[in-house]
Amino acid sequence: MQLLKGIAGIFRRQEAPTIAVICVAAAALWGFVALAAEMVEGDLRRFDETLLLALRTPGDTSDPIGPAQIEVAMRDLTALGGVTVLSLVTLMVATFLILRQQGRVAGVLLVVAVGGQAISHLAKLGFSRPRPDLVPHGVEVATASFPSGHSMMATVTYLTLAVILTRSEKTIRLRAFYLSVAVILSVLVGTSRVYLGVHWPSDVLAGWTLGAFWALGVWLVTRWLQHRGRIEPSK
After folding, report:
1. Is residue 188 part of a domain?
2. Which of 48, 129, 167, 221 is exposed most, by the fewest CB atoms within 10 A?
3. What is the pLDDT of residues 158-216, one digit of tens each?
4. For residues 183 and 61, is the Cβ–Cβ distance under 8 A?
5. Phi and psi dihedrals of 102, rounded to 5?
């Protein structure tokens, strides 16, 4: 109840950035729910198949479009959304924040990462969508398809890191740069999953929307806690 009152108070103060984040988070949640409903009903099949096959050489579904170097690059990019890379990045940034005497901010980062992984796994278990069977997989996979865990966790991690950086940045151009880099990295990771044939396009869209909702939702809670003095101010 106190949290709801705190968020309502932010609305009353007409803090434009916070209101914008609330709107984007709500839109992201709506997008995920809509995608999930369409996926369950089977209405996304044609869209998914058309886009997935568009990334393959006509007449040879085993050959992704473009030279072999692109496939190598896509494997490199997809690793940026893997558990190993994201865990290392998260732990290093959390350690940096602790050394900077911002232990509670580090705690928020860890909550975002662990919570995001939990949500991703639960969603995969709940929907149990099979991986694409139209094309060979470019990398090994072991879990269900919907939503894309790489896309979701890349969005969660990089967007959260961007928000942490913007807390101490006064220049609007640099704030925009941090957020743009987060978005670009998330898009590249998601695109690589479709290119490598391990996810349907709608899996990636669902990962992006669910990841954005989770990261922005935690940001709102963090901002509320900071207003109450429970999170260290930016340095």
Report:
1. yes
2. 221
3. 999 998 888 777 788 998 999 999 999 999 999 999 999 999 999 999 999 999 999 99
4. no
5. -125, 55
Report the number of distinct structural domains present in the chain.
Answer: 1
Quote the CA–CA distance of 148 and 28 in Å, as a whole number.
15
Does residue 94 contact residue 106 with C-beta atoms inside 8 Å?
A: yes
Burial of 151 (0-12, 13-18, 19+ CB in 10 A): buried
Q: Please, what is the angle between helix 103-127 and helix 201-227, to 10°?
A: 150
In a domain, 235, yes or no: no
On whether residue 182 sits in a domain, the answer given is yes
Q: Rg for the chain (alpha carbons), in Å?
A: 19
Structure tokens at 45: 């099949």
Contact 119, 127 (CB under 8 A): no
